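User: structure tokens for this one?
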Amino acid sequence: MIRRAIAVTVVALGASAVMPAAPAQARFCMPDHQCTTYYYSDSSHSTQVGSLYEECDGSRYSSGRRTGYFTFSEIPCGSPR
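Assistant:
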């Protein structure tokens, strides 16, 4: 029984070591806020590859692709820009 538990643990750890990591997720947009997230190809943030706009009414518009390199901005609804 203990051997089986050890074997399962070793297999699980090995599988997690070879699985690629998912892109980091941007913050959640707070209620009653408008949020903009821009995604970039690498850490230099020189090439934008995607975006996500979250409006005050809850609608979301996205384009391109998400990556682990992003900027996030958030403003309260009704605030002057």
